[in-house]
Design goal:
Elements: H1 3-6, H2 21-26, H3 28-39, E1 42-47, E2 50-55, H4 58-67, E3 72-73, H5 82-85, H6 94-104, H7 113-136, E4 141-142, H8 143-160, H9 165-186, H10 198-223, H11 231-237, H12 247-278, H13 280-294, H14 308-320, E5 327-331, E6 335-337, E7 340-342, E8 347-350, H15 352-355, H16 375-379, H17 399-416, E9 417-421, E10 428-431, E11 435-438, E12 442-447
Parallel strand pairs: 2-8
Antiparallel strand pairs: 1-2, 3-5, 4-12, 5-8, 6-7, 9-12, 10-11
Helix pairs in contact: 7-8, 7-17, 8-9, 8-12, 9-10, 10-12, 12-14, 12-17, 13-14, 13-17
Bound molecules: protoporphyrin IX containing FE.
Length: about 450
Amino acid sequence: MSVAERRRPAGPTGYPLLGVFPRARRDPLGFFMDCARRYGDAISMRLGPQRVYLVTHPDHVRQVLQDNARAYAKGPPATRVRGLFGESLTVVDGERWRRRRRQVQPAFQPGQHAQFASLVVRASDEMLERWRSLAERSEPVDAATEMRRLAQTIIIRACFGDLAAAEIEALGHALDTAVAHVDRRLWSAFGWLEVPTLAAGRYRRALRAIDAFVSRMLSQARRTAPPPGSLLAALVAAPAAGEPITDADLRDELKAILVAGHTTTASALAWTWYLLSEHSDVRERLAHECRTVFGGATPSVEMLSRLDYTRRVIEEVLRLYPPTWLTARMLVTDDTLAGYTIPADAMVLLSPYVTHRHPAVWEAPEAFDPDRFTRTRAVARPTFAYFPFGGGPRHCIGSAFATTEMQLIVAAVAQHYRLTRVPGVSVVPTAGLTLRPSPAVPCRLHRLS
Ligand code: HEM
């Protein structure tokens, strides 16, 4: 072992006991960016009692997520989100994870796409219809709330088929309450403690409501046939070669899909309208492409391959504001990373937000420039310079769904509406469970046809 391998990378010193926690909590994005600027590609720090390493270079990201993925488990960091994700694919490790991925994967096969796309189109149409009278009355909408409602409707119908509007609303409300609570506690020094506060009571009730809803859908599906084409039907039917998935596991998977499948896309879509309202040249070019490709017709999944500029815009949104802005791993065995020996039990953090701004890869990283994602420019970059959907064996299982969904929604909206931001409300990125624009993205709707 060389001397360089034994040294610990440099990094910020913090307070006794709390380490850098108070600074990271105050402004997580600013803090991590500042660390990368000051200390380079590998940074060591103490977050509370835990020694943590942040690595930012694409080669090191590849090592953690792909080349040596077996040495990096989700481990205890995932416990803070257990209420939402249970013992699902997103949090379990090792052989349990491998078996579960095999059980869940069939529900996300390309065969499921046409059905999924048609429900995205229908839900978008319903939203656009609702917008019509708001536009006539010049009433602004909050793009973040609109996108969250839309993404919730889509994922709920994708899981359970057609449901009454009131049922979707009730489940959506429970999801909002539970996600907001986890969001607040994520950066709380005592976030893992179950302190009996009013907010904790609301959280527990919301979780119970989600559980009860999912259980009811599951027992209905077991009694009669599950809704055809739904994720529930695909999960119940998953052949899984001698590895049937239990009802308890299925419940956790459905809960996790409900959460992971809408918070992420909703954040990305909210950022899309924010960025387009700031960059009218990009907005016009995108609208022109959508009008040319669809000519007023309803967007369909077959036509998406012709939306090259729209694809680039969405990829650039995910570069600047990756919804999953931080990913944590726990080392199972020692590993040599960035020239340093990192001991077992250390926590390794990866941040697409930081790596997507790495100066060795990205020119003028803060600029919004969709043309970075022309095919020629994209293939010239190291693979892990851009990883909004993670990478390696644990890459996002819903990435193709999410991409289809976002393209269809952006195309549907851009054909019919121009969104312009209501002046005077400053929007900042808030780094919680996802990276979302806060406090809101109030926009005026201008109907184009
Ligand atoms: C813009 C939208 C989305 C983004 C940016 C995103 C991002 C990610 C990322 C970065 C990971 C890997 C996390 C890690 O390595 O620790 C992940 C995993 C996952 N995502 Fe997504 N996701 C999105 C949409 C979705 C959708 C629509 C679904 C489901 C319908 C979904 C379900 C999952 C699941 C179940 C996992 C865990 C996979 C595993 O550990 O095997 N995601 N996602």
